[in-house]
Fold:
Amino acid sequence: MIGIGSGLQVLVATQPVDFRRGAESLASLARSMGHDIAAPGTVIVFRAKRADRVEIIAWAGSGLVMLWTALGEGAFKWPPVADGVMRLAPAQLAALLEGLEWSRVQPRRRVAPQAFR
Structure:
């Protein structure tokens, strides 16, 4: 498994896509929705119609990287299908890829540092 850092911005396309599409085609789809695929630390997650497969694309500085994964049995836990994009915390993405209920994972709240007295 690829490490998922805390500074990652995770965008999930909520509509299923045709998994015959390649990385460039998925990036074009993301751009058409107004997302900058080349933004540092951004990954975009796409789902298959049966919800048993996931494709993730990210910009690696010199080109696109695509990760494809599938569950041996069952399906990934997905939100109801709706238009648009939703955001996940990196920990929620890790839970999703493990086939766990990602919605039960709460992102850590950032607390402003306090000055020493």
Summary: The mean pLDDT is 79.
